[in-house]
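Design a sequence for this backbone.
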């Protein structure tokens, strides 16, 4: 059979079932990703606000301790090591994104100065943690948003291009098969009519001898 025959029709029908199933899966993924993006966006907005508050608080304490103890004391008590940030990854529908962060912040190298110095260090620790959480949350939003956009594009391509094209191909094959069946039925009828006319009506035999 050619692609316009029954085998071609079955092939297109199978592909159409696959395409419709794929569209359903993409639609389900889109809905799940939309809900997940909304949750992540709300979390990112909350953490952004928290980070802004912590950063302003740390800035105020830095200004106070600079006036009280001076920048020399701040430099002397600053930790010699850098803080380390760890990221725990999660995911949804095969998309990985930062889920939580942990911060390992070294202690001050020496004690001294006013109590404002300790409050300043604590405020900056809190701001660092809030900033890391905010950055991870914003990264999660961007990753999920990118995947959601790609999912929408794939869904539209399947629903508006692939499925309609397969439906048109299937309809064309069905019309062609219907035409072939009609032509075959007409040929059979014409053949039957020709056989009937060639045989003709039967005539009874006549007795030539007659009655004696």
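Sequence:
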């Amino acid at each position: 059979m050619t692609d316009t025959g029954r085998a071609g029709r079955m092939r297109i029908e199978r592909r159409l079932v696959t395409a419709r199933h794929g569209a359903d899966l993409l639609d389900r993924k889109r809905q799940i990703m939309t809900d997940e993006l909304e949750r992540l966006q709300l979390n990112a907005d909350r953490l952004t606000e928290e980070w802004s508050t912590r950063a302003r608080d740390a800035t105020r304490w830095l200004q106070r301790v600079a006036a009280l103890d001076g920048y020399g004391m701040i430099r002397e008590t600053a930790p010699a090591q850098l803080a380390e940030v760890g990221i725990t990854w999660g995911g949804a529908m095969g998309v990985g994104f930062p889920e939580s962060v942990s911060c390992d912040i070294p202690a001050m190298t020496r004690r001294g100065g006013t109590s404002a110095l300790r409050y300043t260090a604590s405020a900056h620790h809190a701001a660092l943690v809030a900033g890391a959480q905010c950055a991870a949350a914003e990264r999660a939003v961007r990753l999920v948003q990118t995947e959601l956009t790609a999912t929408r594009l794939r869904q539209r391509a399947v629903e508006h291009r692939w499925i309609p094209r397969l439906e048109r191909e299937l309809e064309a094959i069905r019309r062609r098969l219907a035409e072939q069946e009609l032509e075959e039925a007409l040929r059979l009828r014409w053949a039957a009519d020709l056989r009937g006319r060639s045989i003709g009506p039967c005539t009874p035999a006549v007795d030539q001898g007659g009655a004696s």
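The mean pLDDT is 87.
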